[in-house]
Amino acid sequence: MPPATAQIAALRAALANTSRPAIAMAAHNPLTAKLAHEAGFSAIWVSGFELSASYAVPDASILPVSTHLETTRAMGEVQPLPLIADLDTGYGNAVNLTYVVRQYEAAGAAAIVIEDNVFPKESSLRAGPAGAKRKLAGIAEFQGKIAAAKAASSVLVIARTEALIAGYGEAEALERAAAWAEAGADAVLIHSKAKTPDEVVSFCRKWDGRVPVVIIPTNYPQLGFKEAGELGKVGLVICGNHTVRTVVEAVRKTYKKILEEGGIEGVEGDIASVQEVFKLQGDGEMREIEKKFVR
Amino acid sequence: MPPATAQIAALRAALANTSRPAIAMAAHNPLTAKLAHEAGFSAIWVSGFELSASYAVPDASILPVSTHLETTRAMGEVQPLPLIADLDTGYGNAVNLTYVVRQYEAAGAAAIVIEDNVFPKESSLRAGPAGAKRKLAGIAEFQGKIAAAKAASSVLVIARTEALIAGYGEAEALERAAAWAEAGADAVLIHSKAKTPDEVVSFCRKWDGRVPVVIIPTNYPQLGFKEAGELGKVGLVICGNHTVRTVVEAVRKTYKKILEEGGIEGVEGDIASVQEVFKLQGDGEMREIEKKFVR
Amino acid sequence: MPPATAQIAALRAALANTSRPAIAMAAHNPLTAKLAHEAGFSAIWVSGFELSASYAVPDASILPVSTHLETTRAMGEVQPLPLIADLDTGYGNAVNLTYVVRQYEAAGAAAIVIEDNVFPKESSLRAGPAGAKRKLAGIAEFQGKIAAAKAASSVLVIARTEALIAGYGEAEALERAAAWAEAGADAVLIHSKAKTPDEVVSFCRKWDGRVPVVIIPTNYPQLGFKEAGELGKVGLVICGNHTVRTVVEAVRKTYKKILEEGGIEGVEGDIASVQEVFKLQGDGEMREIEKKFVR
Amino acid sequence: MPPATAQIAALRAALANTSRPAIAMAAHNPLTAKLAHEAGFSAIWVSGFELSASYAVPDASILPVSTHLETTRAMGEVQPLPLIADLDTGYGNAVNLTYVVRQYEAAGAAAIVIEDNVFPKESSLRAGPAGAKRKLAGIAEFQGKIAAAKAASSVLVIARTEALIAGYGEAEALERAAAWAEAGADAVLIHSKAKTPDEVVSFCRKWDGRVPVVIIPTNYPQLGFKEAGELGKVGLVICGNHTVRTVVEAVRKTYKKILEEGGIEGVEGDIASVQEVFKLQGDGEMREIEKKFVR
Ligand SMILES: [Mg+2]
Ligand SMILES: [Mg+2]
Ligand SMILES: [Mg+2]
Ligand SMILES: [Mg+2]
Asked: Does D291 touch chain B (CB under 8 A)?
């Protein structure tokens, strides 16, 4: 049994409940994953964008898979939510993905997401060259990757299509989503960077629902979680980048204030106490181990 | 020449200017290091406490040195400030430290800090058992480690004493600081968890100034940077944990709001835009490389 | 259930069969682990000495735990034998060991070995200063570590005493072994660097057999596996360093021959073919994945 | 200045001496790199094939770049020869390579080799499907990668063409080699898996010599180092896989003997002593540090 058997089952059940989608929060380190659990989210999105941003490098296949894998593992060590691992294009072909997905299963992932971009990927939300369609993976090729991932492990496989973002239109998006489901995907992620929910809403209306839909509404935040549920097709909403965006803004403010005021006293009221951080570090459990075993 | 030759020189000069101490900010990943540079700090404190907190584990020799070393290296890849690496007790004896300090030099560190705690360390600010003095390293032993680190590399060695925190009093603190300077330390870090600056102020008054003093005023934030400068002995003030404390507070707020409001629209005004994050990831440089070399 | 449940059970059974001890071979990378499985050994000794030697650094707490942990994990990915992880002194106190042993369990280890040396350790077989007894961990302290490791995971805990090597004599060795068993150790490893088996034979005769004994007969190779079985107490014999020693000798010969002959033709008959290496790399399984899934 | 400035200069000079090519030996860990230095080779080939084999996985873009990068760094820490890093297809496009080559420079590499295979690569010597030509990177695309690598760092860039192996013939091989040189490559690697040196000899005769040629004569070992020099074009001969092939054969023999004889006594004469291994681990230097600094 994979280490995350319980989380896989929980996530599978959550995805199936399309009248009330599960909400996953993006995290880029174990601390933020633990905070997401504490807050009440249902899953962690181990986001390639967030992780790349935390290293201050582009989300463009620059960090090695090992960095993402170890982050996933470390998140599982400190909190119990299902981990949904963002594998980008899958780190190669079906062979490479076979090796990789086994490692994610062993690391405690409950699901992986692979996308039909071409390696090396670039961030979906990045402005591309005007008028040019981004190239996508072939349908048969990507189906092979989905099937390989399913054959290699028990983790859920969420297959993402960039057809809308890459400019191929709704028909292509629907065809690809259907092909992903046919190949064994447990859910399909339809990505859109339209400024309104219309694209995604229309897709959901036409989607036959054979597997649940996953969305990442960064660019169309008007679509609330309840409205997503009313579409009847969405099993999971991913908040894709709100942790690192929060960090950037808040850290900038603290830094500015400290330097302007010439000291650290003024920020005390704005930030968590050291004791709060100790608690998040598991100081309580450490004290119990000390009491029992440090002699 | 070590990769951080310029940073070593800059930090050495900054430490010498005890009328206007340099200010270092704690960071736990390359992104926050880059933000600290952007804000105008003079150095990055590659804090063991912050890094442990970002992994949600106690600051108690639990993370392997490799995690800290790779974080240091990654910080140097994305911003130019001197990196001051928190090596805790030095990861073993003088032999181990020799191996470790060479790796930090190669990773681009400008300085290391070692402390006279006993391995495995625990966080200095953690409440200890009432009435018990924490054990410290022997003076000769610790001098050997300082000398070994100096002999092994060109990075600055900042030697920290926990004499005040461990309950041995000011005389012991002064004796240890003098012993560290005698052994070759480039600066001494006097750590205090008193709730007022008195301990540190008194120490500075009695310190003969043969090498600069470094302080981490977490518990006595009343001491501003200007006041620290007026002591005439302090070359560096380290803001020891304000990044991760900011993160905890701000991330908790965002998460709460998203779940309470049932959507991500409401936090948009509170957090950085995706475009802002792209910029911090070096999207501009990536576009230049693309234009020149991707054919 | 830990990932290595089957291996834990197999190793436990093998240890119990003290009339015919299991034989473990030291390995320093997944390839040599796979070769040990192919040859017919019963377990892999993930040796700190071998691993350090493969990095050309002393076996003296210099490699970070992460390097050893990742090696253990990678060995488990490519062959099915139980992995016995050499944890040296346990990477800290009972708290640190608690964190570490959980990670080894997740990495697929079937057993860990911890030794009563003091951190930072040095290689047991290294010549020490004449006349000086090496310091050992206190009995209660080490019992706490054993108990902590048992409480933290399901992997077998093999507790090693260096009492003979450190010069404290047989009575101390027996007392420590008994204390380790009392604290919950699944087996005790009695280490000796005597040039004959006498020390270990005498220890085994006096040992009451409440848990099996493990030996590493590097310095007393006269003791064959059959003779070890005849002692009736030994559940496991570890070949502690024969892989890396083989590598050094053989690689030196190949290198010398190539340079002396001025070409690579002459060594062809002495070394494995490229096709043999392909097989060990799992080329067969890769071809099957390709056939099924690469489209 | 890059950390390997001296090694870069030495390798550049060696490459230029085409009447007496430098000889590089493949290594897969720091120990074998150190043995190659000891034996008298001129450079270390940080071979992807050897490293993959040491992990018992196919040489097919399965190991993450971080594993290879860290191996390169660790090799540089223990021996002084120039390190020639096998970067396969460059881990992505010109952007990715830019990031990667900077990291190799910081890790102490003297040169990188990139090949015009398509990601994910497979081993050049592996039997492909009958009658099918392996796809290669476009010429302009690969030139962009060479130029990007040159712009990003000071390490030497050796550009490899698989035109012969992929079945495109000599004219294509010459055209590609010329294009690589034009784009800034410091040397071109012409790879062949013919069973005789004819292909490579013919290539060298027609090559105008504007930059030196590098060869890996695994499949045509008849070509000695002296004969390679007589071609007047070859600056470097790489022994591409002889270390791991030696290891497989020798380790198999030792394992077999130990199990057949039922003990470790019989192999003592065949393998290096523990003392020999201590020496290779730098025990001598460790003792000096101990004497000076461990108090
Ligand atoms: Mg992503
Ligand atoms: Mg610290
Ligand atoms: Mg050992
Ligand atoms: Mg290769």
From this structure: no
